[in-house]
Structure formats: C-alpha cells, structure tokens
Amino acid sequence: MSRHPGPGPAPVSLARALSKLGYCSRTQAGQLIVEGRVRVDGRLALDPALRLQIGRARISVDGEPVSAEQRIYLMLNKPRGTLTTRHDPQGRPTIYACLDGIDLPFVAPVGRLDRASEGLLLLSNDSRWAKTILDPASGVEKTYHVQIDTVPDEAMMQRLRAGTVDDGERLTTKAASLLRHGQRNAWIEMVIDEGRNRQIRRIVEAAGAEVLRLVRVGIGALALGELAKGAVRPLQPTEIALPLQSERRHAAE
C-alpha cells in the first residue's frame, strides 16, 4: 500500500499525473512511459503505475519538463456523426477534428454524446471540475431537444415523463414537454439528471416512438445558445460554474 509522503496532494500514478497536468490522455501517457520517453526526477520511468505527488516530482517527456497547463474550459456544438473520442481505429471522424488549428493543451470531453447525437459537449483539462459534473450525486440536469417520428398524444407524453425499466435498468426523466409538431413528427424537450447509455433513446422507444434527431441544448444552467454546428468557444469565467447550478432551464407545463 502506498503511503502519503508528508503534506501536499495525494499521490497518483504517473500516467494519471500526465493526464491531470493536461499533457495528454491517460492512455497516451501509458504509451509514452512504456516507450521510455518519460523521466521522473531525472530517472527513466517505465511503470505507468508509479506513484508520485504532482507538484513535487519533476516530470519530463523527451527531455522537456511537464508543468501544469492553464485550465481550459470549452463548449463545442458536436456535429452529428462524430465520435466522442480522441482516435478511432476505423478512421471515423471524431470531435477533435473540430479543434484542428487551435493551439490548446490536451482537453478531454466531459461525458459523452453517442455518434448519432449532437449538441452541447464540454471539454476541459480540469479533471476535478469534470468529475464533479459527471458525479451522479451532483444531480446536474441535461436538457435535450428530441425529434420523434410521430405526434405524441397525452398518453405518450405521460409515458415519456414516467420513464421505463429496460433490461433491468430503471431509466427516468425529470421532465418532458412538447415543443412543436408537424403532421408526422414532433420536437419534444426532455430533461434528465443521469447519464445512462442511450437513456433518452431507450425511453422514447419504450414509449412507442423512434428518435430522428437528438440534440443536447443545456447542461445545468449552461445553454448551447447560437453556437454554430462544429464550432467551439471558451467558457467565460461566469459560465464555468453554470453546469453545477441546480436552476432548471425548462419551463413547466
């Protein structure tokens, strides 16, 4: 068992340290370490699990010192058809193509949107901030605009509000309301405070409809607004705390 070597931050693995410092992802850090490109306090380090204290240990990669990067907080309007990952073995487009040409330290997505989903995605190198947003205990609400392949009646809306049990997993919504409709389809707003796999799609399917488009428009009190598809912008200082505010964006029916 590792001991905490005196006052200061708790020890973390070398791979995690490189990630927390904003140098690269933990997976990429592990690869750099096993390739012999990383030194700690001047000594070659080949074990990604090596424990150290950030701020005390001197870490270098390819002879260049690694220090804490400025904290970065970004909002991206994720395009449909992109993956929320750094690299895809099949060569499919990822969200990082939206960051090409922007001088940034490594930033990681805060949560995920599946390939067919679009809209508000946060990216940051502040792992503590990201963890707080993703922690189920935080109860951060996510607001989605969902196009479905039918015009729902009140019974279907009640099913959407009630959620469902799918494959033994309870899936819930905080709210569901009709935004607008045509003759054959409709847009509804759904609010959830969980992040289960394909949660909204599964709830909609259980209610007897199919999702045509799924757009996340809000995280906590932070709204996507008019940000163009595929565009990215930094959060303003006053916006950084908004995802953690409990004020609900949706209007009660």
Topology:
Elements: E1 12-13, H1 14-20, H2 26-34, E2 38-40, E3 43-44, E4 51-52, E5 59-61, E6 64-65, E7 73-78, E8 108-110, E9 118-124, H3 127-134, E10 142-148, H4 154-162, E11 164-166, E12 169-171, E13 175-181, E14 186-192, H5 199-206, E15 211-219, E16 222-223, E17 232-234
Parallel strand pairs: 9-15
Antiparallel strand pairs: 1-4, 2-3, 2-5, 5-6, 7-9, 7-17, 8-9, 10-14, 10-15, 11-12, 13-14, 15-16
In words, what does this structure look like?
This protein has 253 residues and is an alpha+beta fold. Helix content is 16%, strand content 28%. The protein contains five helices and 17 strands. The strands form four sheets. Strands 7, 8, 9, 10, 13, 14, 15, 16 and 17 form a nine-stranded mixed beta sheet that branches. Strands 3-2-5-6 form a four-stranded antiparallel beta sheet. A two-stranded antiparallel sheet has the order 1-4. The longest helix is centred in the first third of the chain and has 9 residues, at 26-34. The model is unreliable at 1-7 and 247-253 (pLDDT under 50).
Short summary of the structure?
The chain has 253 residues and is α+β, with helices and mostly antiparallel strands.
Throw out a few tags for this protein.
single chain; 253 residues; alpha+beta; 9-stranded mixed beta sheet; 4-stranded antiparallel beta sheet; 5 helices; 17 strands; elongated; disordered N terminus; disordered C terminus
In DSSP terms, counting alpha (H) and pi (I) runs of 4 or more, how many helices? 5
- The proportion of residues forming helix, as a percent range, comes to 10-25%
Question: Roughly how many Å apart are the termini?
Answer: 55 Å
What is the residue-mean pLDDT, rounded to a whole number?
A: 89
Structural class: alpha+beta
Instruction: Write down the secondary-structure element order.
Output: EHHEEEEEEEEHEHEEEEHEEE
What portion of residues belong to β-strands?
Answer: 25-35%
Q: What's the overall geometry?
A: elongated
Computed over alpha carbons, the radius of gyration is 21 Å
- Please tally the β strands and state the result: 17
Q: Largest sheet, described in full?
A: 9 strands, mixed
Name the poorly predicted regions: 1-7, 247-253
